[in-house]
Amino acid sequence: MAGITVSPTPLLKDELDIVIPTIRNLDFLEMWRPFFQPYHLIIVQDGDPSKVIKVPEGFDYELHNRNDINRILGPKASCISFKDSACRCFGYMVSKKKYIYTIDDDCFVAKNPSGKDINALEQHIKNLLTPSTPFFFNTLYDPYREGADFVRGYPFSLREGAPTAVSHGLWLNIPDYDAPTQLVKPLERNTRYVDAVLTIPKGTLFPMCGMNLAFNRELIGPAMYFGLMGDGQPIGRYDDMWAGWCMKVICDHLGFGVKTGLPYIWHSKASNPFVNLKKEYKGIYWQEELIPFFQSVTLPKDCTTVQKCYVEISKQVKAKLGKVDEYFNKLADAMVTWIEAWDEQNPSEGVVPNVTAK
């Protein structure tokens, strides 16, 4: 449950990396020190690689700037966005751990209604280590939480659940709104703490926010590509959305679950709505075609790995979205480059896990 004090031995200390994209000094880590210090951090520095990013003392970290990305990936570095937090997915690729937690540098420790600091990472780990229920909705939400169970009428054949691939956390204070909503409601703050974790049902898409997000890298890692955004691209702020739509279609196909709800973090800073509108406006227009596209994607039975599924989606993006805008042909090519780069960086993972499509 949220607000639990730090365990003496942190959960998954040697199996989880924390990925942080940034353009600034990471003073925000001081507040997270009690929870993050035992873990390895992968910092992906965006923007000017000559700028020195300061990290508070005592953290175990590696830092990659654009020069490092170019050196490690060579020509395939073209698939990693520049001047956009989408660059964080480079950290997913070079990690060697089973689990990833990613957080933005304007996110701080939130408090639960009783005033205790929320250990967001611990709740994400609980979400990932317990099954999901994507095939049948449980009205008491997560049946694997303490004090809950499957309700009357829930099929016993489905009570083992499905492996959880993604844990999508939420935010108190500044909500994750698009620019038009920000402009209409500039003073709105989220003060509602809902003590619930839900599995997003099979066949249902959702807007995935990358601000407070954890996932099982071994199960779904190659699908967590945050696309081509930012510098030189016609769109921004849809990086996590794109990853979420691709990931959810693949999870549905392979029989994995996605949870949303707890844990909360405190999102401290509202980004400029006018700057956001400039980044988002094509996405706001395009998503009316993107959502029906993802709702209609079907993956063949022989797509038994995440990589195969992802390459198949890229083909369908090119075939069906290329006519919406030339950008989607470029994005589809980048999706294939991403998978090639992923397999080069993770050679032993090429065919794992091999599962039966649902």
Automatic annotation (TrEMBL):
UniProt KW keywords: Cell wall biogenesis/degradation, Glycoprotein, Golgi apparatus, Isomerase
A single Gene Ontology CC term: cytosol
Keyword Methyltransferase in record: no
Pfam families: RGP
The keyword Cell wall biogenesis/degradation belongs to this UniProt entry's keyword annotation: yes
EC number(s) from the headed UniProt entry: 5.4.99.30
GO biological process: cell wall organization; plant-type cell wall organization or biogenesis; UDP-L-arabinose metabolic process
Annotated site, Required for activity, chain positions: 152, 159
Annotated glycan sites: 152
GO molecular function list: UDP-arabinopyranose mutase activity
Reactions mediated catalytically: UDP-beta-L-arabinofuranose = UDP-beta-L-arabinopyranose
Subcellular location as annotated: Golgi apparatus
Superkingdom of this protein's organism: Eukaryota
Enzyme class: isomerase
Matching InterPro entries: Nucleotide-diphossugar_trans, RGP, RGP_fam
Family: Belongs to the RGP family.
Function: Probable UDP-L-arabinose mutase involved in the biosynthesis of cell wall non-cellulosic polysaccharides.
Protein name, UniProt field: UDP-arabinopyranose mutase
